[in-house]
Amino acid sequence: xxxxxxxxxNSAVPAHGRHPTSQVVQTGSHHFLVDCGExxxxxxxxxxxxxxxxxHIFISHLHGDHYFGLIGLLTSMGLNQRTTELHVFAPPALRxxxxxQLQAAFTELPYPVVFVELxxxxxxxxxxxxxxxxxxxxxxxACWGFIFREKKxxxxxxxxxxxxxxxxxxxxxxxxxxxxxxxxxxGLIENDKLTxxxxxxxxxxxxxxxxxxxxxxxxxxxxDLLYHEATFLHVExxxxxxxxxxxxxxxxxxxxxxxVKKLLIGHFSAKYNDLEPLACEAKTNFENTECAIEGACxxx
Length: 300
Fold this sequence. Notes:
single chain, alpha/beta, seven-stranded mixed sheet, 9 helices, 18 strands, 26% strand
């Protein structure tokens, strides 16, 4: 299972009931927080999501609308008696910023925080269900995107063939992992005679803040769901470029070039109350586009 819940879809200034960037990515056993703009913990509460379940936080860059909510969330976790370890992946300076904020308030968190500095394209997380990788994008300051991938699903057992071969049920996990069956008498039945290929795992890419940057296409190629900023309409392309942001038209161009299955656009400028024109513009290049809506959960 791979799902994305949008907590904040706006750019720097909260407006029109929208909040700065933040979202929760869920895999089978983990809740990952991606960016933590102002108001994130209020949004978690509003959408009935428990901060205690968050195990890893990924901060794309150190513009305030992507991390100003973090110190409040960390201290609230402490006040709520969190004791489990929390991993924070972020640009190097964030560790010092958080430590200074805690020291100024004479606050000591009752749980360990493990800071991991982002650099280049790196495998950040892996367990038996999923991986998380980083890749650089092009913004005014160092900035990263993140790719969440489910691992390939276990092989599917053919119940008719398994039953005909009298294979005990307690042997099924070995078959699902790709092992052959060795009968008590020593006979061997190859795995592909008893199972079929498991379904390919799903994938989600979060592209963070970036100027139109076709170089990221190789990193996000053929993901099932792509989140890409679309701060402005293309009539504002000059302003977007000067601020190292992307237009909706350009976001659609990236999605098309990468061959993704679906595009979510977000990081909307406060100048837009109605978001539909942004979606329509992106669709001129990539039809399967939606605006990322706060509170919506997108199953990948």
